[in-house]
């Protein structure tokens, strides 16, 4: 669409108001050419175009990394002060609500169960629903006041080679992994180790390369250089079906990854049929089908769902239920390693806590190695033994849970300082 005169100037002015760099370029860009934070700013600019008195913000920072979240919240605070806007926040993030809002209304099952000043409600919740939300809210330790950025040694480590839990041998190892797209290095020489029954969190800002690395580990992206090893054996560029099954990726958006025309049971049955691992030899098709049906029920119960949900379509499920189905589908392949990409990003506080508990149970109960890719450092803190921090395709820092109180890198400290805390 070509705009001229006053309309073009108005567009550029709105983009400048939301602090987007190079408004002329942004105005000519398509949404897929912008980062998540830039798209959120464009949406805010669209809302401001009508000169509103009230701005209704529906989960405005849910899918953003912590540094971009901080920038968007600061922008909204500035716009509120400059324009005299009234902000209405719809959010499951109590820390964001506590920072941005004066009053709070807690809803459950379509009804408002509690209202009041934010400080009063959070300090002395009057209802069980509010107390449950607060109990499930993620917490992070405060940064140690004496922690300082380390010199170059913190930046020179490109692996996670310190002792794993109980000094166990590596279940999964990545050696000098590189993913190159033309002149662009999406992943530039990353190494890591993961033991059985342990969890590694891969964190970083948008565009850091963490999801590309996760997909390369799962065999969905081909490495330009480097190796992925499972139980000491190198997984080649063309993995066998058996090798692909051993490392399962749980996608960020389970709804889009579930076939809408198949029931939950059908989704799981499809994986079991592809494996051909259920049913007695010589028992016939009926015996195999019965064996798969029983296994579907076992998988659903393993992830905390009732067996009768097998007949439901994915669009009839809540976000938390769909995430559990995605985990059940991954388990149906009998994996050794789960790679969970933003497993809680679209979930409310209580559903998020339940998924973390489930992942912890799968890690400990089945001895799985789990890799969690997340911009939510609270999830990584609660679930993971070790942390790998990425930026620009490279590892900035890796280590154990001491990262959360005493990061060795300046970037790690900046990232943790950006977190909105309750």
UniProtKB/TrEMBL annotation:
Transport: present as a keyword of the record?
yes
Q: Name one GO biological process term.
A: transmembrane transport
Q: Which SUPFAM superfamilies match?
A: P-loop containing nucleoside triphosphate hydrolases
GO molecular function terms here? ATP binding; ATP hydrolysis activity
Recite the UniProt keywords alphabetically. ATP-binding, Nucleotide-binding, Transport
Per the record's keyword annotation, is rRNA-binding included, yes or no?
A: no
Query: Which Pfam families does this entry report, sorted A to Z?
Result: ABC_tran
Under the heading CDD domains, the entry gives: ABC_NikE_OppD_transporters
Residue span(s) of domain ABC transporter: 172-417
Q: Which family does it belong to?
A: Belongs to the ABC transporter superfamily.
From the Swiss-Prot or TrEMBL record, give the protein name. ABC transporter domain-containing protein
| Native species | Leucobacter chromiiresistens
């Amino acid at each position: 669409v070509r705009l001229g005169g006053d309309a073009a100037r108005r567009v550029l002015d709105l983009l400048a108001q939301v602090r987007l760099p190079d408004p002329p370029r942004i105005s000519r860009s398509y949404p897929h050419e912008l980062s998540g934070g830039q798209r959120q700013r464009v949406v805010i600019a669209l809302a401001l175009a009508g000169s509103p008195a009230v701005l209704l913000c529906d989960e405005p920072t849910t899918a953003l990394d912590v540094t971009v979240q901080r920038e968007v919240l600061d922008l909204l605070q500035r716009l509120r002060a400059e324009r005299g806007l009234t902000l209405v926040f719809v959010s499951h993030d109590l820390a964001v609500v506590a920072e941005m809002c004066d009053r709070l209304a807690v809803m459950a099952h379509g009804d408002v169960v509690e209202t009041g000043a934010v400080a009063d409600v959070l300090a002395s919740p009057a209802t069980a629903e509010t107390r449950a939300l607060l109990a499930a809210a993620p917490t992070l330790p405060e940064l140690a006041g004496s922690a300082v950025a380390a010199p170059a040694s913190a930046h020179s480590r490109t692996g996670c080679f310190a002792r794993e839990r109980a000094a166990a041998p590596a279940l999964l190892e990545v050696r000098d992994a590189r993913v190159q797209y033309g002149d662009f290095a999406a992943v530039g020489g990353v190494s890591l180790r993961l033991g059985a029954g342990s969890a590694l969190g891969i964190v970083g800002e948008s565009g850091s390369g963490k999801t590309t690395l996760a997909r390369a580990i799962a065999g969905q992206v081909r490495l330009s250089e480097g190796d992925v090893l499972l139980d000491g054996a190198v997984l080649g560029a063309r993995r066998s079906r058996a090798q692909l099954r051993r490392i399962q990726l749980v996608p960020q958006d389970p709804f889009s990854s579930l076939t809408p025309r198949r029931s939950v049971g059908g989704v799981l049955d499809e994986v079991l049929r592809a494996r051909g691992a259920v049913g007695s030899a010589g028992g016939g098709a009926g015996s195999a089908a019965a064996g798969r049906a029983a296994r579907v029920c076992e998988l659903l119960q393993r992830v905390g769902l009732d067996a009768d949900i097998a007949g439901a379509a994915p669009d009839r499920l809540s976000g938390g239920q769909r995430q559990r189905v995605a985990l059940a589908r991954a388990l149906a392949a009998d994996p050794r390693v789960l790679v969970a990409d933003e497993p809680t990003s679209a979930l409310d506080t209580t559903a998020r806590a339940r998924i973390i508990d489930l992942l912890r149970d799968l890690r400990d109960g089945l001895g799985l190695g789990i890799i969690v890719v997340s911009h939510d450092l609270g999830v990584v803190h609660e679930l993971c033994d070790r942390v790998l921090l990425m930026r620009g395709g490279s590892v900035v820092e890796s280590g154990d849970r001491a990262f959360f109180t005493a990061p060795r890198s300046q970037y790690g400290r900046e990232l943790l300082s950006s977190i909105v805390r309750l």
